[in-house]
């Protein structure tokens, strides 16, 4: 169930967040708190790491959160959910 939760959460984040990666941070935080994937302190650390890592902050944070929640498969699913949502939003 965690993989489906990750997929749908990051699809939702990508589809309904406007304004770039930094605008997504509150929605990402509410999703991780709702599912209990990590603590608030861990989330702040993930955002700091995602800012330092090359690439979009939303994709980087999805990858880190997915890995923390469900390992390598979680990282792949969360990242694909985020990227897929961006593709859907750009096509529509």
Task: Walk me through what this model shows.
With 92 residues, the protein is mainly α. Helix content is 85%, strand content 0%. The protein is built from four helices and no strands. The protein has helices at 2-16, 21-35, 40-52, 57-91. α1 runs antiparallel to α2 (21-35) and α3 crosses α4. It is globular, with a radius of gyration of 12 Å. The termini are far apart. The mean pLDDT is 91.
Measure the end-to-end span: 29 Å
Strand content: under 5%
Mean pLDDT across all amino acids: 91
Secondary structure tally: strands: 0
Category from helices, strands and their pairing: mainly alpha
Give the proportion of residues in helices.
over 70%
Q: State the low-pLDDT regions, or none.
A: none
Radius of gyration: 12 Å
How does the overall form come out from the CA principal axes?
Answer: globular
Q: Main β-sheet, in a few words?
A: none
Q: How many distinct helices?
A: 4
Order of helices and strands: HHHH
Q: How are the elements arranged and paired?
A:
Layout: H1 2-16, H2 21-35, H3 40-52, H4 57-91
Condensed summary:
Helices cover 85% and strands 0% of the residues.
Give structural attributes.
single chain, 4 helices, 0% strand, mainly alpha, globular, 92 residues
